[in-house]
Amino acid sequence: MASSSNTYEVREERSSAQLEYVFISVGRQIVPKIIQYTLTHQFEDRDVYNLGFGDYNDKSDQIEDHIKSGNGDAYKVFNTVLSTIPLFFERFADAILIVQGSDGGPDFIEKCQRTCIRKCHLSCRKFNQRVAIYRNFVEKHFSALSYHYWFLGGYTNDRMSLTTEKYILGRAYNAILMFKK
């Protein structure tokens, strides 16, 4: 999915319910990062895994997926995340992968408005910004990616349940689902 020449080296860690790739972002500072594929549920006899990503906080032993490090290596970090997707499908060939942003939850807008300097009143500019990055990548490379993967677009409703459809280029989805052909 991404050129390996512009990625960080990853270390794989596995457990029964998740797969993790750990790497170090080297820029203005040294930042440990974790890409986490977590089993969330089953859909039509397939395991569904959520792609999570963020800075690793060694004090809390947690992934902080709401932080923007500003480390000056965003493209290399993003390419590293993308480079693990084929590795994920090597381990879980029949799985469905779902990508949603930590900035797409029901409480995000309320939290954002408390500290927002832009004072977005009608719609929050930061809402679903993270999934938009993945969506833009899929849109740009859809033809090539479609040789290997099927894509669905997902919308969340007021009760936070997900409705999916065959991926349509140009739609602003809250989630992207993909699985191998």
Helical amount among residues, as a percent range?
10-25%
Low-confidence stretches: none
Compute the average pLDDT.
Answer: 83
Query: Structural class of the helix and strand makeup?
Result: alpha+beta
Multimeric state of these chains? single chain
Number of strands: 9
Per the principal axes of the C-alpha atoms, what is the gross shape? globular
Task: Please count the helical segments.
Answer: 3
Largest sheet: 9 strands, mixed
The helix/strand series, from N terminus to C terminus, equals EEEEEHEHHEEE
End-to-end C-alpha gap: 15 Å
Residue share in β-strands? 35-45%
| Rg | 16 Å
Domains (count)? 1
InterPro entries: DUF6934
Attribute tags:
181 residues, single chain, alpha+beta
How would you explain this protein's 3D organization?
The protein is of the alpha+beta class. It has one domain (4-180). Helices cover 24% and strands 36% of the residues. The chain has 3 helices and 9 strands; from the N terminus they run E-E-E-E-E-H-E-H-H-E-E-E. The chain has helices spanning 74-91, 108-115, 129-145; strands at residues 11-14, 18-26, 30-43, 46-57, 62-64, 96-100, 149-156, 162-166, 175-180. Strands 1, 2, 3, 4, 5, 6, 7, 8 and 9 form a 9-stranded mixed β-sheet that branches. The mean pLDDT is 83. InterPro entries: DUF6934. It holds the Pfam family DUF6934.
